[in-house]
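Reminder to self: tokens first, then the designed residues, so the page reads top to bottom the way the pipeline ran.
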């Protein structure tokens, strides 16, 4: 749901102040003087805004915002910080705009206006600049730091998977020639460890027998999206459920059983009260853990939105083996805080919430997702934007989120509610080429049981880097939707320049052994304009 932030009108505030006069005459006289001063300054700031004198207006707003906060008039304080952020954005002082919108979000939250607080935070995040540094290391050096010891889980690395049966370039459902388990690896240049297959609860496993047989022949696993299309009441502790579990166990195919996913979204029939959902998930988990102990893991997979209700649907650690999430990006300029027709969101950052909630307890993965190469409302080609977001996602995911264990790409142009989602790789050669490059990273695994030979280590003042030549990469997020070049500086000297994600370069740290240094990341857009400068303190051992 899109939330638009609108300031509370000056007239409404005067009404509130007038109402307050009924309470106590002596107190109100003091408040009236205060209110006249505050709102007088507010009106002055508005006039300055109208004249385009944004810096002067900011100073006015900043002088009264703390007054509102101190008096616990949090809605008014939020409104002032909204205007401060807007004015800083007009001055192209985006870091200052972010700081102001963060305060807006804080005070709207304190005022109990949760949705507007979320919208303010979203605007801040779209312009927020940040930078992190990583060095490539070995899986042996990482050890067991990134594993939970769960069934099918690699110690390091992530399985690649896909939903591919709706891509006519790799699958013919009538003839089974080609079949996606054979042709999708040919198209993408790499074997995939598993494929997503939807399954209607109540049907026998034999209804997808050809998919089971091809998975077994190809040595691939199945992420089985089990959907109770008649609602959760049909899910009972009966012979059907037990037989389904026994049949999957006997199939000899490893199955990630994703039961009733996206339950937090109101677009599915099993979007019910959390208590009932949890009861049914726990039932299914109990049966499968008993009847299919070798070949099945239970997957709990909400949509990434809405965030606020995700945790309330969690069925508990005993029932859940893996945690997945649906994660998509479709070009949407309507939320651009700069009103320039751009989508400044980060596909990568959308994984952050689910990772922080559950990665310490369970293997986490993207159970389905993709980046659309079209702006569907306008039918505008956004291939370059999509390729950048896709490549950034796969390249940086292992660095920022080392406990990620699988990524399933949704290879389809499907139609839902008359809004086509353009994710299909075969329909866009730029996107296909970007995907092929992205999954070529050895971190991404082709078979259940494989392990990544590489891992990544964050470097900072708290996490030292060895004094030697290191392969350094960076995650740089800023207000520019895409970047074209990154340079690294140490001691005001450029030590490396790179023009491709994830901004990998060789840097010799030997001269700085035993020192604490600042590595300065400078990021440039496609016009070679400096977009952001990020300083990362690094200890060298």
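Designed residues (541 positions):
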């Amino acid at each position: 749901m899109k939330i638009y932030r609108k300031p509370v009108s000056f007239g409404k505030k005067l009404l509130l102040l007038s109402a307050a006069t009924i309470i106590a005459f002596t107190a109100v006289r003091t408040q009236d003087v205060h209110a006249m001063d505050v709102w007088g300054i507010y009106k002055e700031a508005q006039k300055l805004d109208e004249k385009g004198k944004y810096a002067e207006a900011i100073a006015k707003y900043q002088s009264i915002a703390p007054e509102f906060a101190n008096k616990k008039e949090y809605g008014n304080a939020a409104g002032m910080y909204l205007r401060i952020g807007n004015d800083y954005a007009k001055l192209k002082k985006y870091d200052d705009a972010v700081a102001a919108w963060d305060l807006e979000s804080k005070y709207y939250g304190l005022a109990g206006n949760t949705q507007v607080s979320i919208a303010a935070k979203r605007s801040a995040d779209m312009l927020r600049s940040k930078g992190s540094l990583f060095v490539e290391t070995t899986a042996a050096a990482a050890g067991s730091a990134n594993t939970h010891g769960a069934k099918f889980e690699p110690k390091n690395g992530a399985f690649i998977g896909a939903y591919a049966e709706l891509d006519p370039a790799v699958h013919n459902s009538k003839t089974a020639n080609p079949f996606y388990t054979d042709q999708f690896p040919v198209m993408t240049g790499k074997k995939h460890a598993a494929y997503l297959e939807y399954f209607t609860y109540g049907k026998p496993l034999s209804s997808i027998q050809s998919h089971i047989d091809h998975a077994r022949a190809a040595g691939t696993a199945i992420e089985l999206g089990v959907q109770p299309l008649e609602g959760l009441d049909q899910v009972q502790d009966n012979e059907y459920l037990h037989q389904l579990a026994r049949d999957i166990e006997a199939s000899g195919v490893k199955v990630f059983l994703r039961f009733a996913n996206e339950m937090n979204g109101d677009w599915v029939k099993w979007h019910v009260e959390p208590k009932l959902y949890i009861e049914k998930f726990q039932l299914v988990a109990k049966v499968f853990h008993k009847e299919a102990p070798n070949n099945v893991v239970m997957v709990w997979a909400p949509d990434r939105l809405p965030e606020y209700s995700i945790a309330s649907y969690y069925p508990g650690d005993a029932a859940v083996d893996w945690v997945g999430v649906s994660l998509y990006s479709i070009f949407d300029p309507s939320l651009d805080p700069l009103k320039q027709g751009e989508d400044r969101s980060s596909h990568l950052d959308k994984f952050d919430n689910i990772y922080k909630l559950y990665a310490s307890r369970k293997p986490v993965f993207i159970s389905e997702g993709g980046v659309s190469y079209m702006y569907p409302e306008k039918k505008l080609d956004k291939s370059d934007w999509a390729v950048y977001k896709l490549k950034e996602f796969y390249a940086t995911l292992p660095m920022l989120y080392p406990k990620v264990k699988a990524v399933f790409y949704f290879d389809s142009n499907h139609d839902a509610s008359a809004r086509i989602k353009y994710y299909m790789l075969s329909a866009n050669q730029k996107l296909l080429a970007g995907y092929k490059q992205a999954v070529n990273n050895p971190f991404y695994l082709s078979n259940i049981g494989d392990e990544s030979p590489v891992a990544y280590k964050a470097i900072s003042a708290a996490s030292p880097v060895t004094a030697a030549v290191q392969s350094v990469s960076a995650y740089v997020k800023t207000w520019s939707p895409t970047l074209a070049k990154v340079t690294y500086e140490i001691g005001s000297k450029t030590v490396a320049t790179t023009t491709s994600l994830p901004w990998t370069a060789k840097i010799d740290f030997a001269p700085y052994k035993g020192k604490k240094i600042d590595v300065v990341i400078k990021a440039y857009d496609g016009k070679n304009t400096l977009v952001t400068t990020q300083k990362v303190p690094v200890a060298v051992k």
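Residues 25-50 form the longest helix (26 residues).
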